[in-house]
Amino acid sequence: MARPMRTSAQGLELIQSFEGFRPRAARLPGGGWLIGYGHTATARAGLQITPRDAALILRHHDLPRIEQQIAEQVLSPLSQNEFDALVSFAFNIGPEAFANSDVVAALNAGDRALAANAMWAWRLANISGELRVVDALARRRAAEIAHFLEHPAGRAAIPGALVRPLAQQGHDDEESGAGASSVTIGPRVTGETPAAAPENSTQAAARAVSERIARILGEAPRQPASPPPQPLAASDGPTPEEITDAVKALVGDEPIAAPLTSATAPQRAKGPPEGIERRRMPRPANGTTTDTALPPLPPAEGVVVDDLEIVQVDQRDLERAIQENGDHDTTAVRNLGAWMPYALLSGLGLVGLIAGVERFISQAARPVLRGSDVYAGPVLALGGGFLFLIASYYLYRAMTRQD
């Protein structure tokens, strides 16, 4: 079992940057509420929170359960970067989905590269009943995988000449081992005849043009009078002049509409990369074409949802939000009716206090006619002062209360 670990400051920054801060509780499509940095346990309608409190809830309430789950289910030792990436990944997909994912199985098998690749599968979401690739989830998975693969000692140096990357041929080929090949790097024996260089993308494009012109003309492609050039290296390709001469030799003495020149030569970079073949529509069985223009390619299968796309808001959701949050104008009127009586009582108490003090001072300067007149001024001043203090206190609470 992995030793207990806590999420570092870099891990918290990674989670907070993708969760985003919500100062007010927001309604979820499933009916729950969300507030702060992805907190749902105690969120409810009308709740507000500060960024500092939201960070404390994330650090000491939401993440400890995820950290404990990783410590119990992941049996291989983890570095701090790997642990932070797994905490962000599990916090996003949920504890149950993380426990049943291929990421945990690959980590327990000791294959960290396979675990990082398994994280990339969790970038789909249910949008209107259809599974789609969400661009925000794709960005989060890419950041988590990059943080997971980052070594604490720094990036490992892998020379491109020693480890040449290959395109993935498919899951079946990987399991069967059909797409794998061993490469041995060693010195060349003196006097050994070098093997023919493989055909690169430029040569393949020239050969495809030659075959297509031959099919259009209905004859075999003509061979140029000059002897064929020597085989080129894999990194080289035919020059624009050589391609022009080859096309002229194929079509005879007819003029060429748009010969390749030095100005148009850089446009060859727009072709497909090496090892990828252009998609062509199937031809009829008789070998003839009905239209010289090729039909457009079908649209891509993957659908990416843009988070900046205009969202259609349902009118029923707006009416429910107005009922839950209330009207601002009616709230202001209701607050005014709540503190106005306390303001009147406070003013009445202040007037009584002033009148009592004035009466006490005026009685001190003249003789007292009745014994009860001695206590009238102090009693009026004390009563007015007490009413002023009590009314002022409740006036302050009514004015500072938030609905």
Tell me what you see in this structure:
- There is one protein chain.
- This protein is mainly alpha-helical and 403 residues long.
- It has 13 helices and 5 strands.
- It has a 3-stranded mixed sheet.
- Helix 12 packs antiparallel against helix 13.
- The longest helix has 37 residues, at 328-364.
- The two termini are 50 Å apart.
- Residues 171-194, 255-270, 275-280 and 287-291 have low confidence and may be disordered.
Sheet/helix structural class: mainly alpha
User: What is the overall shape?
Assistant: elongated
CATH architecture of the domain at 9-149: Orthogonal Bundle
Q: What is the residue-averaged pLDDT? A: 74
What is the CA-atom radius of gyration, in angstroms? 40 Å
| Discrete helix count | 13
**Largest sheet strand order:** 3-4-5
Low-confidence stretches: 171-194, 255-270, 275-280, 287-291
Quick one: CATH class of the domain at 9-149? Answer: Mainly Alpha
The percentage of residues in β strands lies in 5-15%
- The name of the CATH topology of the domain at 9-149 is Lysozyme
Strand count, sense and barrel status of the largest sheet are:
3 strands, mixed
How many strands in all?
5
Distance between the termini: 50 Å
